[in-house]
Amino acid sequence: MRAPSDPIDLHRHGAALRARRPAPLGPASAGPVAIVGAGPGDPELLTVKALRRLEAADVIVHDRLVSGEVLAFARPGAERIYVGKAAGAHAKTQEQINALLLGHARAGRRVVRLKGGDPFVFGRGGEEAEHLRAHGLEVEVVPGITAAAGCAAAAGIPLTHRDHAHAVTLVTGHGTAPEAEPDWAGLARPGQTLVIYMGVATAARTAERLIAHGLAPETPAAVVEKGTTEEQRVLATRLDGLAATVAEAGVRAPAVLVIGAVAAYAEAADRLAEPAVPACAAAL
Amino acid sequence: MRAPSDPIDLHRHGAALRARRPAPLGPASAGPVAIVGAGPGDPELLTVKALRRLEAADVIVHDRLVSGEVLAFARPGAERIYVGKAAGAHAKTQEQINALLLGHARAGRRVVRLKGGDPFVFGRGGEEAEHLRAHGLEVEVVPGITAAAGCAAAAGIPLTHRDHAHAVTLVTGHGTAPEAEPDWAGLARPGQTLVIYMGVATAARTAERLIAHGLAPETPAAVVEKGTTEEQRVLATRLDGLAATVAEAGVRAPAVLVIGAVAAYAEAADRLAEPAVPACAAAL
Predict the structure, then answer these.
(1) From A43, which residue of chain B is nearest by alpha-carbon distance?
(2) How far B17 CA sits from the closest chain A CA (Å)?
(3) How far is A19 from B207, CA to CA, in rounded Å?
(4) pTM of the predicted model, to two decimals?
(5) Is the distance from CB of B152 to CB of B159 less than 8 angstroms?
(6) CB contact under 8 A, A180 and B192
(7) Tens digit of pLDDT for each residue in A6-38?
(8) What is the ipTM of this complex?
(9) Residue B37 carries which DSSP code?
(10) Which chain A positions have a beta carbon within 8 Å of B130's beta carbon?
(11) Where are the alpha helices (DSSP H) in chain B?
(12) What is the distance of C-alpha A68 from the center of its chain?
């Protein structure tokens, strides 16, 4: 979806924005901390507002799932602080992140908390906003394209469709682990689209539970790995083949699973382009 | 959330993009039709990619829920075709829209099909993409900030929260009408956030059915009217007060209803600014 020239164009665009810094943020957006969604990976899927906040920031506190291309929009003097969470190996605890944001904001710096996807969809943006507000700070939340929307668009999967899906439910694979049983009967109901974030490791159990609760084994399913990046892969399968597909293709995080009739629209034309995007440039 | 100066800045930004037209779209994005999400209303919530497609378009086919501020990014010579749907009064049928897109694309024009929110979330983008592809055209889908994400960010409502909501479900109020009964038991399950699009007219029935299926009457609920625009109103209530709140405040479409524990975070500071944005500049 992206032309090779786009990153260069975007940098020019960034320079154009820098030329008119500092922009007046206005009274309504003058909060010292902006919690900003970085979108699913493709830097062109940043919103204009996110780009502007990023360019104005003194300090950018970011996760693992924020691409180097997105971080490149920061102004040269901005401090970038990585607080990413790899599974099981947290670089910083949530408490440490909260303290960090608070410290920089109180020191009078323009702080951007940059999160992959949308800050309010499995991003813990709510907890961070709550913490900052409880300490008297103003917080602005800038939404981002969440992985479900970004990956669906890139893979040709409409999340809703008058003939097939009247609802879309977003859940995480963590939530489908045995120790945190979701309402499988609710998730297995037909006529909706299910998008599972962080669901690679638990794909086999998810498929098994959904089938056990009545979802047809032949229900279309798709896997979108590194969606919207140059390394995107789209794998089309069925619910009863999901686990095997994930295993055989060696799917790795970040990826979303899409389950429901609409997954049949997946463009299974895997795009295995050269890794023009660094490994960290990945979608949530 | 928006400073008064922003529209001007955006126009400058638009001019900067125009200066380097025509941009190479590259082989992967060379489809003659781009189905583009315009986001929830605030023009700064357009993605960079959407802005670029809009600026490159010869023909823009748009809905009612696309603001004049967004349309202003089109180049001066571009043709704008309104195909909006007001409830019960379709300006054009879906068949007419499909034929229109096809005709302009086959005539060699760069066509942007611009839709409020995200084209694949209650936007019929899937049907239009299907139709165009069936007729041999390449289609690119550019995701947009869907109303749920835009309104949640603007109203301070995290859609998911480790303590309160492990899933988020998007549905329409149309789907909750008596003739198209949804799975109320599924929607009424606790621990999730429910976002109802186009749900103003059916708010009373929605609340009644959810309570009848076991959702607690005191479940927090919020209404976000014209979310992310200058006319945004946020109303915080409870599920059993939802219908009365909607009626007493005279809530009108476009609006989303948010039901679930996280709705308690709603910033009920109604922002009734001067109508700086024209009435059509409304969020899906």
Answers:
(1) B48
(2) 7
(3) 51
(4) 0.85
(5) yes
(6) no
(7) 333 434 444 333 333 333 333 333 358 999 999
(8) 0.85
(9) E
(10) 265
(11) 6-19, 48-56, 68-71, 94-106, 125-134, 147-155, 184-187, 203-212, 242-249
(12) 15
